[in-house]
Design goal:
Strand order of the largest sheet: 4-5-1-11-12
Strand content: 25-35%
Low-confidence stretches: 1-5, 251-258
Shape: globular
Distance between the termini: 34 Å
Number of strands: 12
Largest sheet: 5 strands, mixed
Order of helices and strands: EHHHEEEEEHHHHEEEEEE
Number of helices: 7
Length: about 260
C-alpha cells in the first residue's frame, strides 16, 4: 500500500510534514503488512480497538518513511524508548538510521490517526483528540482554562465549547510530547485562554522559549489536531493517499489564535 516504489519527499531543514489517516478495521488490515514483526506481536496483545489504532498509526509512519527513504516499510529501523524510565515498550518513536536525521511523532484517538515528521534539528509532537473520547468536557475545561476563561467557556454554544476544549487539550499534549514535559506543566505553559469573541489563544514561541504550537484542520469532523515543533518551522499537511499534495499550514498564526 505504501511501499518504496513511489517516493515521498521527507522534510528538510526548517520543515515538517503532517499526515492524517482515518482508522477503520479495513485500513488496519491494509497497513498490517507494513509493521515489523515486533510491532505485530505487540498489537496482537491489545484489544481489537487499540490494535486497529496502533496498526494504522504505525503503518502510516512506516509507509511514509519507507517511501521517503527507499526502504521496505517493515524494515525501517524504528525504536521506542521512554525518556523517563528507559523502557522500550512505551515512549516516543525514533528513527535509528545512520546519516538520516528526522524527528517523529504520532497520535491516534477513536477513528483518526496523525503522523508528523520533521527535520531532526527540530523536535516535534502531534496530538489528536476526539469528542467521543474526551470524557467530561467540563472536567477538561477546568484543567485547561483559568477560572475567568472557564466562566467564559461555559457561555459558548455547545459545538464551539467542545472544539475549544479539545483544541486546547491537543495543543497541550502536542507540546508535552515535543518538549518531553508532563501534561500538567505543558498545559500551564501554553496558558490557553479565550478572547472576547470566544476564540482560543495559546502562548506563542516567545513565551514558550522558542517552541511553536499550532492547530491543523482535522480530517474528520469533531476532532482536534495540534502540532508542536522546536522553532516556528514550515509545516505542510498532506493526504496519505496523495502524500505530495496538501495544504500549507503556515498562514495560520502558530500558537497565537486558533
Amino acid at each position: 500500500m505504501n511501499g518504496p516504489d513511489t517516493r515521498v519527499a521527507l522534510p528538510g531543514p526548517g520543515r515538517a510534514r503532517l499526515w492524517q489517516q482515518r482508522v477503520t478495521p479495513g485500513s488496519a488490515r491494509s497497513y498490517a503488512s507494513l509493521l515489523s514483526p515486533e510491532e505485530r506481536s505487540r498489537g496482537a496483545a491489545m484489544t481489537d480497538a487499540a490494535r486497529v489504532r496502533f496498526t494504522v498509526a504505525r503503518g502510516v509512519l512506516r509507509g511514509m518513511l519507507g517511501r521517503g527513504l527507499g526502504l521496505r516499510p517493515d524494515r525501517v529501523p524504528l525504536r521506542v524508548t521512554c525518556p523517563r524510565c528507559g523502557a522500550a515498550d512505551h515512549g516516543p518513536v525514533r528513527l535509528s538510521l545512520p546519516g538520516v536525521d528526522l524527528a517523529l511523532s504520532l497520535s491516534h484517538s477513536a477513528e483518526l490517526a496523525a503522523v508528523t515528521v520533521a527535520h531532526g534539528e527540530h523536535r516535534v509532537g502531534v496530538d489528536v483528540e476526539a469528542g467521543t473520547a474526551a470524557g467530561d468536557l467540563g472536567v477538561l475545561a477546568r484543567r485547561v482554562f483559568a477560572p475567568a476563561d472557564h466562566d467564559r467557556w461555559r457561555t459558548l454554544p455547545a459545538g464551539r465549547a467542545r472544539s475549544a476544549v479539545l483544541t486546547a487539550w491537543a495543543c497541550g499534549e502536542a507540546y508535552a510530547k515535543a518538549a518531553e514535559l508532563g501534561l500538567g506543566t505543558a498545559l500551564a505553559r501554553i496558558g490557553a485562554r479565550l478572547d472576547e469573541h470566544g476564540g482560543l489563544m495559546v502562548a506563542g514561541p516567545r513565551d514558550l522559549d522558542g517552541w511553536s504550537v499550532r492547530t491543523a484542520p482535522a480530517r474528520l469532523s469533531g476532532y482536534a489536531v495540534a502540532v508542536a515543533t522546536r522553532d516556528d518551522i514550515h509545516l505542510h499537511s498532506a493526504d496519505v493517499g496523495r502524500p505530495d499534495a496538501g495544504r500549507d499550514l503556515n498562514r495560520q498564526p502558530a500558537a497565537h489564535r486558533t
